[in-house]
Specification:
The complex is a heterotrimer of chains A (176), B (180) and C (294). With 176 residues, chain A is an alpha/beta fold. Chain A is built from five helices and seven strands, in the order H-E-E-H-E-E-E-E-H-E-H-H. In chain A, the strands form two sheets. A five-stranded mixed β-sheet of chain A has the order 1-2-5-4-3, with helices on one face. Chain A is elongated and about 65 Å long. Chain B is an alpha/beta fold and 180 residues long. Chain B has one domain: Rossmann fold (3-Layer(aba) Sandwich), CATH 3.40.50. Chain B has a five-stranded parallel β-sheet, with helices on both faces. Chain B is globular and about 45 Å long. By secondary structure, chain C is an all-alpha fold. Chain C has twelve helices and no strands. The longest helix of chain C is centred in the middle third of the chain and has 32 residues. The chains are: A alpha/beta (176), B alpha/beta (180), C mainly alpha (294). Chains A and B meet through helix 4 of A and helix 3 and helix 7 of B.
Chain lengths: 176, 180, 294
């Protein structure tokens, strides 16, 4: 089981030169690749049994000014998992679609477009999927402030007395 | 709101309504898990004449269990307006009261009575089935006394409620790509 | 004048006894599930509460359908003999009753489809399919009884059971009729048309308040027609009081059976009815033709 996974990793090293490999677990390997090689690596892994796209998601690294796009591929033959991650520029959030490899990626990409504002070339269906009438920054970006948005959009209850302050006094956090 | 005197028929009707409450649960929140124990043999809600109903048309109580996202709030408003009068709303858990642990979420509302009239709140995260049954008893008392008038308030202050709904939701109408 | 009083007596019996027994059955189901259960008069409260609310109509076909359903079932009930209480003596022909009973079912189908909700259309389609399932074995087993006694009048059929009950003379036919009765009542293995968690209580999905109250009354009366016919035809001679006792026993038996069974899918219902009960009904008809009756 493990041998086949290490073989694939060895083959991948010949395919892509700049490759960072993190072994998370016996059956889970994370590979970080430059973004222009992503499609090659994904189709290679798909051809080697890792044919199930478990999830396609993104992480916002605001200090590095990057979006990390993560594909989790699963094999039904040996239960192994490859976490393929690549980083794209945060300013020009644009990437290639993998819809021709996995048709279901259409919905993941729609979701990423909705929550991070990442465009996917090759996927023309970029309608919002979960949110309705969204009118602000994409909500999972780190520069979006949910508390401020919530205060502006969904009014809070106005209490006659400050119960949270009183609770803190009772608990002893503050000296009343 | 001016409390108008009920005539004898309305008083009798209120007695009947308080003893036969059919519920529609809106169970997208985590509070739904408290309903099975309150319905089954431990607490047995049916002994008060209460029971679940499958459609808003037959329901008397709209029971909101937990947080409501902006998206589900649209459906709840639809559901509430489909119910025949008189109708009562119970908000269950802190999330309907002041947002609860979702007070800073971009997708969930912070207070339910800003959008639809709520007759009774049950505070807690989670309230136990005892609290639930206590609340139902309280609601029955309120109905008997003619105090559960949320549905009248909704009719009288319809513009206020509609403005609030539109302020938070943009548009109450549901557009659904899978049905259009 | 006497006819009017007798009709009123039949309808009032249907109303009070029917609603009481529905409450009792809720209590029995609660006790089987180890709950305390609602009081026996809960269904009266439910009906009157539903009538006290303001409903929402869906056009005149909807209104007319509900009235036709309730009126049709009330008209049917007036023809059913309750033991020795016969509202129209000499007119209680089985064919009249079966024919009139269809008016109520069709009125309900029309009104519910008129509401325009897809769930109610699915429910009505299921109800009519299920009717197709149980009517055939039921009619065959009842025809065998009619052939044997050479009459179609329900009170004649009842009075012909001097020596012993039809149920004992033709046990297969009785069993078939009882299984069909469960389907007619919409009791548990056969409650596919009103599956609440599946199609949101099916035909009733758009019924609000007063309409719901009228439909609950219609349901009560139709229970009375269905079980009443079974008691009259199969359970021997009875006067008004023994009729009610036999009625209660059958109703409680149906409740007990239904409270421990899950639900069939609609095609399973039809397959079941057209295999076991239909076969037994044909067998019973054959026995009657051959004269093999106990």
């Amino acid at each position: 089981m493990m041998s086949s996974m290490s073989e694939i990793v060895k083959n991948l090293k010949t395919l892509v030169k700049k490759l960072e490999i993190v072994e998370i677990d016996e059956r889970e390997v994370k590979i970080e690749i430059p973004c222009e090689k992503t499609l090659n690596v994904l189709s290679f892994l798909k051809g080697n049994g890792y044919s199930h796209l478990s999830i396609l998601t993104a992480v916002d690294w605001i200090e590095e000014n990057k979006f990390e796009i993560v594909y989790v591929l699963f094999s039904w033959e040996n239960g192994g998992k490859f976490v393929v991650s690549t980083k794209i520029d945060r300013k020009k959030a644009k990437f290639v679609s993998v819809m021709h490899l996995w048709p279901i990626a259409r919905f993941y990409e729609r979701e990423l477009h909705e929550f991070f504002g990442i465009q996917f070339e090759g996927n023309d269906d970029m309608r919002p999927l979960f949110l309705e009438n969204w009118d602000s920054l994409p909500p999972l970006r780190k520069d979006f402030d949910p508390l401020e948005y919530s205060k502006e959009k969904f009014p809070d209850r106005e209490y006659i007395k400050d119960v949270i302050y009183e609770a803190k006094v009772i608990r002893g956090d503050l000296n009343g | 709101m001016a409390n108008h005197e009920r005539n004898i028929w309305e008083k009798i009707a209120d007695q009947l309504r308080s003893k036969s409450l059919w519920m529609l649960h809106y169970c997208t929140g985590c509070g739904a898990i408290e309903l099975p124990p309150s319905m089954t043999s431990r607490f047995d809600m049916e002994r008060f004449g209460m029971g679940p109903m499958a459609t808003p048309r037959q329901a008397d109580i709209l029971f909101i269990t937990g947080y409501l996202s902006a998206k589900t709030l649209r459906r709840v408003i639809y559901t509430y307006e489909q119910m025949p009068e008189p109708k009562y709303v119970i908000g269950f858990g802190s999330c309907t009261l002041n947002g609860g642990i979702y007070y800073d979420s971009y997708a969930t509302i912070n207070r339910l009575d800003y959008y639809i009239p709520v007759d009774l709140y049950i505070a807690g995260c989670m309230p136990r089935p005892e609290a639930l049954l206590e609340a139902f008893n309280e609601l029955m008392k309120m109905i008997r006394k003619g105090e559960a008038n949320g549905w009248k308030q909704y009719k009288e202050n319809y513009d206020w409620y509609k403005n609030n709904q539109i302020r938070s939701l943009g548009e109450v109408l549901v557009h659904d790509e899978f049905h259009e | 004048m006497m006819t009017i009083i007798r009709v009123a007596a039949v309808l009032l019996t249907g109303f009070f006894v029917g609603l009481t027994l529905e409450g009792v059955s809720r209590k029995i189901i609660a006790r089987i599930q180890r709950r305390y259960g609602p009081p026996w008069y809960q269904n009266f409260i439910d009906v009157f509460k539903a009538l006290s609310k303001n409903g929402i109509t869906h056009g005149w076909i909807f209104d007319f359908g509900i009235l036709m359903a309730l009126g049709g079932v009330i008209a049917t009930l007036a023809f059913v003999p309750l033991g020795d209480l016969v509202a129209f003596p000499g007119l209680d022909n089985l064919f009249i009753i079966v024919y009139l009973f269809a008016v109520g079912a069709l009125g309900m189908a029309m009104g519910m489809v008129g509401s325009g909700n897809p769930n109610s259309s699915i429910g009505v389609a299921r109800a009519l399919t299920q009717m197709l399932g149980y009517e055939i074995p039921y009619m065959i087993s009842v025809s065998a009884v009619m052939y044997y006694y050479k009459t179609a009048s329900v009170s004649e059929l009842m009075l012909s059971q001097q020596d012993s009950w039809t149920l004992l003379k033709m046990p297969l036919g009785g069993i078939v009729a009882f299984i069909s009765l469960l389907g007619m009542l919409g009791k548990k293995p056969f409650d596919t048309p009103i599956a609440p968690a599946e199609i949101a209580s099916g035909p009733m999905v758009e019924l609000s308040a007063k309409y719901m109250g009228l439909l609950m009354l219609m349901h009560t009366f139709s229970i009375f027609v269905e079980i009443g016919l079974f008691v009259d035809i199969f359970l021997g001679i009875s006067n008004y009081w023994t009729f009610l006792i036999k009625f209660t026993v059958i109703w409680i038996l149906a409740t007990l059976i239904s409270s421990v069974l899950p639900r069939f899918r609609i095609e399973q219902v039809v397959k079941f009815y057209w295999k076991v009960p239909l076969g037994l009904a044909f067998l019973q008809a054959l026995f009657v033709l051959l004269g093999w009756v106990f």
